Amino acid sequence: MYVILIYDIKTDEKSPRIHRNIFKICKKYLTNVQKSVFEGELSRAEELKLKMELKPFIRKDKDSIVIFKSRSNKWLDKEFWAMEDDKTSNII
Amino acid sequence: MKETFYITKSGTLRRKDNNIVFENSDGTEVFLKSEKMDELYLFGEIDLNTRLLNFLSQMGITLNVFNYYGYYSGSYYPRESKVSGYLLVEQVKTQIDLPRRMKIAKEIVCSAARNIYRNLRYYNKREVDLSVAMSEIEYFISKIDEMENINSLMGIEGNIRKIYYDQWTKIIKQDVEFEKRVKRPPDNMVNTLISFLNSMMYTTVLSEIYKTQLNPTVSFLHEPGNKRFSLALDIAEIFKPLIVDRMIFSMLNKKQITKSHFIDKSRGLELTDVGLKILLGEYENRLKKVLKHKGLKREVSYRYLIRLECYKLMKSVIGEKRLRRF
Amino acid sequence: MKITGIMVYYYFVCKRKLWYFSKDITMEHNSELVEIGKILDEYSYNRKKKSILVDDIINIDFIEDWKIIHEIKKSKSIEEASIWQVKYYIYMLNKLGVEIEKAIIDYPLIKEREVIDLKEKDIVEMEKVLDEIKNIINSKNIPKDMVRKSICNKCAYYELCYV
User: Which residues contact B172 (CB under 8 A, 6 or more apart)?
Assistant: First the structure.
């Protein structure tokens, strides 16, 4: 499936560390397209693994992670309204 | 599905945060998704260390290195995890049993020839008349079964390829000065494209072989272990017309690739940076493209078709079922 | 060749799979289901779980006082195979002199458990099964019976079998 993952970490004394960890983990699975926004293709197993890896860092009562899922990126129209980038390309 | 990454720029590749990071020469960092990656291609001039190689191995990622603009230099593979002594013995037994080896070698030549024929048939409908070449190829295909040794089979294969290449200037609607296949160095656009994409095909096939228990050195059509992993050469024969050649025809005819994407060097005609990126993008798209597999009743990608060919070969090696035509 | 618990399991799932597996032609690395199972194992049981390996034959998820075996399964889809797999563990451990009272199969995803013991008649049946397994894995030829069963669709060997 093709996913867009966004997150919000509540700012307090612990948040920089949490933010760093979440950011590092997400980057192994998805492309970081904007500050706390990631996108990419995930299999069900990869999705589960990502979820399990994130779990210990998330404070259930303070932080929020939202994942939008689509069967394939074919079903998702993407437009750039300002600067265009090719961050999701695997050809560097 | 795992992903392939291609680095055309120069810089440094490191392990960082349990991930792989590419640092450009101007210092910008790009993180490559280590959990998603299964192949990494390097084209630029890149510094790396064993810490990275160990990480690649741990993550099961294959590294393919090309030197300046398109010559394949080698691959770094994770330690073999899928080995079967039984299958290796059967693969070798099949190889040294001439009738059995011939049967598989013929299947390979025949599948490749049919894919060549299909390419000609596709372009025959469009403005050019390729019917003579098609019937000649048909004639040679009908002769495949009669061949009694590898040399004569290779002879047939060579004839088919010669007729095929002779049609290329008719198929390609750009002025490409393609007279014949020249390898070292490639002397014109078409030869440069064939050389580069054939190397890509070889690495792709090899990585699919590595996902099975087949041994890549024990081949059937090519002589085993002749410098390269010759089983990859065998299987690549089938897929070159299907993936590489179709891609060349279509990109040249749509002017996606033109003279401006090449530079004339003493070593032959080389791809430019932009040309390389365009080709990699299109190659990637073609491998990802899916089609319905009738036998399996499933959607499979072109890349996966290569794996399926390996499975068929495994079955014919263990004597399970006749290798079917592609 | 040693008969492992997974071979007993495969015997009841599919004899072709058993044959391929015994020749080290494994396909599990391609299977998303197997991968999901591995991730669940790694993350959900890591504190409680002490997996025990006996003589490369028995791979038990955990064991209480050397009396009760616990085996964790994802689903009941091939229940008979799971039951015979744990019966084999009891059978082998008893042979090695470990008196096992019973086995418990846990299905954490459906929140069920099942208690299994090894009866006299099971021992007779077990020995028959083990003989048949030996025949299959020592055979040069792969078992022919390939039916497009509903389970084939989810099997890691699907492509290899049907291509």
Answer: B178, B190, B248, B249, B252, B253
Q: Which of C83, C86, C81 is nearest to C63 (CA)?
A: C86
Distance in Å, alpha carbon of A80 to nearest chain B alpha carbon: 20
Tokens of B197: 């994409």
Give residue B16's identity as a one-letter amino acid code.
Answer: K
Chain C residues with CB under 8 Å of B87 CB are 23-25
How many whole angstroms from its chain centre is CA A58? 14
pLDDT reported for residue A67:
94
Residues of chain A neighbouring B36 (CB-CB closer than 8 A): 28-29, 40-41, 46
Q: Which residues does C93 contact at the CB level (< 8 Å), separation at least 6? A: C54, C58, C69, C100
For residue C92, the surrounding DSSP H or E stretch is helix C79-95
* Residue in A with minimal Cα distance to B40: A90
Write out pLDDT tens, residues C14-73: 889 999 999 999 888 878 888 887 787 777 655 455 667 777 777 777 777 777 888 877
Cβ burial of B292 (10 Å; 0-12, 13-18, 19+) is exposed
Residue A76 has pLDDT above 50, yes or no: yes
pLDDT of residue C145: 67
Q: Give the phi and the psi of residue B161 in degrees, each rounded to 5.
A: -65, -40
Tens of pLDDT, residue by residue over B80-116, are 778 899 999 999 999 999 999 999 999 999 999 999 9
CA distance, residue C28 to nearest chain A CA (Å): 14
Q: In which residue are the tokens 């799971």 written? A: C82
State the burial class of residue A2 (Cβ atoms within 10 Å of its Cβ: 0-12, 13-18, 19+). middle
C24, two tokens = 């080290």
Higher pLDDT, residue B14 or C96: B14
CA neighbor of B82 nearest in space, from B229, B217, B211, B235:
B211
Enter the DSSP assignment of C30.
G
How much is the mean pLDDT over chain C? Answer: 82
The answer, yes or no, to whether residue B245 has pLDDT greater than 60, is: yes
C-alpha distances out from residue B238 to B27, B207, B244, Å: 43, 16, 11
DSSP letter at C3 equals: P
pTM (global) more than 0.85 = yes
Radius of gyration of chain B (CA): 20
Handedness of CA C25, C30, C35, C36 (dihedral sign): negative
Residues B257-280 have a mean pLDDT of 86
Can you say whether the dihedral through the CA atoms of B63, B69, B70, B73 is positive or negative? Answer: negative
Q: Which of B5, B3, B8 lies closest to B276 in space, CA to CA?
A: B8
- A1 to chain C, minimum CA–CA distance in Å? 13
- The token pair at B77 is 């593979």
**Across the interface, which of C25, C30, C163 has its CB nearest the CB of B295?**
C163
Average pLDDT, chain B: 89
pLDDT per position as a tens digit, C92-136: 888 888 888 888 888 877 888 888 888 888 889 999 999 999 999
Given a contact cutoff of 8 angstroms between Cβ atoms, the answer to whether C41 and C49 are in contact is: yes
